[in-house]
């Protein structure tokens, strides 16, 4: 007789344990050495996919943001004949399908701003004081730090994102004789910074007329609201097709951007697809290894009377938990990473980055789905060959 | 209650037919302690697997309470094992991430009463160790947990396949005594090559080369 087999009273206090010892969470919680690596691989993969897509998406988003000011007006340039500006503006005013709020003549000169992929062209628009005030209001300016430029002087007002992007403050030069990318015969000082998220550079029209080429007046036509502006853009685009008039409209920026990034997104799809396949393959190998280590458990349970389906359901439930948890944590981690990138890398230069980019997060969905499908197939295949007797007889352990 | 009629189990070894059991007729009565004695390789374990539905005979039939369980599909036989049978295997297999108590509960995860598990473990001298993990228990203690698991839920039949194989003689005798004491109204079918383990058996049959001889 075994001495220790004598009946003994139960200890007064027993640590609490789960009611169902085979709940799907039990194995995962008590085998963190196995479940954590699986979860972390998924977390990192989701973070990688969402991060790549959001960063790539930040480029077209930057284009749309930087040139977003054109949503508020229809730009008009003459083609082949500098005298055409006035007749074009008159024709638009008379035949526009929507009410016109204001027609403005302006001059421009080119400069550059910094983007995540290098220098991009940008325009300093020359306006008279009334038009400048209207334009700033139209672009959502909530006021100006400093003041508006004096007519005819080498002065400029820029918006906050431009100031951040170029590192300019009041009194700094926006244009100047020593700036190759931003030439002007005089130092054009920043005298005002407009409080708006729009990217703007404005100078007195008189200064540009006196100092900058080409000596051609351009036009800006303002509809009453953004919806009408879009109608006007599309109408003017079609109306002046083949004529001596160039129409600059926001929808063209959208179209050109989409065309520009079409090929890049195709390449990106292949890269992300490959990544999903690699991660899925790696995960299926890991899951296969971990399940192999549990064959004794599965065989024992089957010998005791658990059906294969019941064991399989439990294993798949465990896999679902790991994958869904990994995916959810991955989304949170990706959001955190993107916020860090936005704060430390993007915001100081006013680069655009959407940390809640729905496309970036949608791209991560195939990852858990693929892992689940492959894991289920792998485990099912293993179970088909599982012989509980071989396990309890220790023929395979 | 549990009956084998003309039961054979044939397999092929390099194309040559081999009988693990041949033409076995055996009936197990309620409450009986049946010992199946035989040397290594005599087919004892195979007979146990046939009786418990872990294997199906290549010939003959196994019935339980009049039902031909050898004709049932794998799932139905599994459900029967879980509901009516208990098992003790040669090796003290336990789930390494579950405590002793939880390993016992595994035998009847839904219908069992946890107090019964605590009672069994106390009877087996493991009350203080019921929250320990298997690697914190000795070999004898692990096998006693297996005994508690086999008895949990008061099975109608407990099958013990050389339950003392991994234990020294003293511990082995103790395990068999506990199995016999705690099985209540259930039958106990135990295979062993050691006659001393069957001192308390109601009946002992001998198996030689897959054939049954009355003992």
Commentary on this structure:
- The complex is a heterodimer of chains A (397) and B (215).
- Helices cover 53% and strands 16% of the residues of chain A.
- Chain A has helices at residues 24-30, 32-66, 85-95, 129-138, 160-166, 205-211, 226-239, 250-292, 295-304, 308-346, 358-362, 366-384, 388-392, and strands at residues 74-78, 100-115, 118-127, 144-146, 155-159, 173-175, 188-194, 201-204, 218-223, 245-248.
- In chain A, strands 1, 2, 3, 4, 5, 6, 7, 8, 9 and 10 form a ten-stranded mixed β-sheet that branches.
- Chain A is elongated.
- The model of chain A is unreliable at 1-18 (pLDDT under 50).
- Chain A is an alpha+beta fold.
- In chain A, helix 2 (32-66) packs antiparallel against helix 8 (250-292) and helix 2 packs across helix 10.
- By secondary structure, chain B is α/β, with parallel strands linked by helices.
- Chain B has a six-stranded mixed β-sheet.
- In chain B, helix 5 runs parallel beside helix 6.
- The radius of gyration of chain B is 17 Å and the shape is globular.
- Chain B starts with a strand and ends with a strand.
- At the A-B interface, helix 1, helix 9 and helix 13 of A face helix 2, helix 3, helix 4, helix 5 and helix 6 of B.
């Amino acid at each position: 007789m075994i001495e220790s087999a004598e009946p003994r009273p139960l200890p007064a206090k027993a640590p609490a344990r789960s009611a169902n010892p085979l709940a799907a969470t039990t194995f995962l919680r008590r085998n963190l050495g196995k479940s954590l690596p699986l979860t972390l691989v998924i977390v990192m993969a989701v973070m990688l996919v969402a991060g790549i897509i959001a960063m790539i998406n930040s480029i077209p988003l930057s284009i749309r943001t930087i040139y977003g000011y054109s949503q508020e007006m229809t730009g008009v340039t003459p083609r082949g004949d500098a005298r055409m500006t006035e007749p074009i503006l008159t024709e638009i005013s008379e035949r526009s399908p929507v009410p016109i709020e204001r027609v403005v003549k302006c001059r421009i000169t080119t400069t550059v701003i910094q983007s995540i992929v290098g220098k991009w062209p940008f325009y300093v628009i020359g306006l008279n004081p009334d038009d400048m005030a209207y334009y700033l209001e139209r672009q959502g300016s909530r006021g100006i730090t400093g003041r508006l430029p004096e007519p005819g002087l080498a002065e400029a007002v820029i918006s906050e994102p431009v100031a951040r992007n170029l590192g300019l403050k009041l009194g700094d030069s926006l244009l100047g004789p020593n700036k190759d990318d931003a030439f002007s015969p005089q130092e054009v000082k920043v005298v005002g910074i407009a409080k708006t998220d729009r990217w703007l550079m404005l100078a007195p029209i008189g200064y540009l007329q006196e100092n900058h080429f080409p000596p051609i007046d351009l036009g800006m036509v303002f509809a009453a609201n953004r919806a009408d502006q879009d109608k006007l853009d599309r109408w003017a685009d079609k109306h002046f097709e083949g004529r001596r008039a160039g129409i600059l409209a926001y929808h063209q920026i959208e179209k050109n951007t989409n065309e520009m990034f079409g090929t890049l997104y195709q390449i990106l799809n292949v890269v992300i697809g490959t990544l999903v396949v690699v991660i899925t393959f790696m995960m299926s190998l890991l899951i296969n290894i971990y399940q192999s280590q549990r064959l004794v458990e599965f065989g024992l349970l089957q010998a005791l009377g658990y059906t294969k389906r019941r064991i399989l359901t439990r294993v798949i439930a465990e896999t679902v938990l790991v994958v869904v948890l990994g995916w959810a944590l991955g989304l949170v981690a990706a959001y955190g990473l993107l916020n860090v990138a936005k704060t430390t890398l993007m915001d100081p230069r006013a680069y655009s980055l959407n940390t809640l980019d729905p496309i970036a997060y949608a791209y991560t969905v195939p990852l858990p789905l693929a892992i689940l499908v492959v894991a289920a197939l792998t485990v099912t295949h293993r179970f088909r060959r599982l012989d509980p007797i071989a396990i309890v007889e220790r023929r395979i352990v | 209650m549990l009956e084998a009629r003309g039961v054979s189990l044939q397999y092929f070894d390099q194309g040559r037919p081999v009988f693990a059991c041949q033409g076995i007729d055996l009936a197990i009565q309620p409450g009986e302690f049946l010992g199946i004695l035989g040397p290594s390789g005599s087919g004892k374990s195979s007979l146990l697997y046939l009786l418990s539905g872990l294997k199906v005979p290549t010939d003959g039939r196994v019935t339980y309470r009049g039902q031909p369980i050898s004709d049932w599909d794998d799932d139905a036989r599994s459900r029967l094992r879980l509901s009516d049978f208990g098992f003790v295997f040669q090796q003290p297999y336990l789930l390494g991430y579950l405590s002793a108590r939880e390993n016992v509960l595994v035998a009847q995860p839904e219908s069992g009463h946890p107090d019964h598990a605590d009672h069994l473990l106390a009877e087996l001298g493991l009350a203080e160790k019921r929250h320990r993990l298997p690697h914190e228990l000795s070999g004898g203690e692990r096998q006693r947990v297996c005994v508690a698991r086999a008895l949990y839920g008061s099975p109608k039949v407990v099958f013990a396949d050389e339950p003392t194989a991994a234990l020294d003689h003293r511990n082995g005798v103790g395990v068999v005594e506990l199995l016999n004491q705690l099985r209540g109204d259930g039958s106990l079918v135990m295979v062993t090559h050691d006659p001393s383990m069957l001192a308390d058996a109601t009946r002992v049959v001998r198996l030689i080369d897959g054939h049954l001889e009355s003992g």
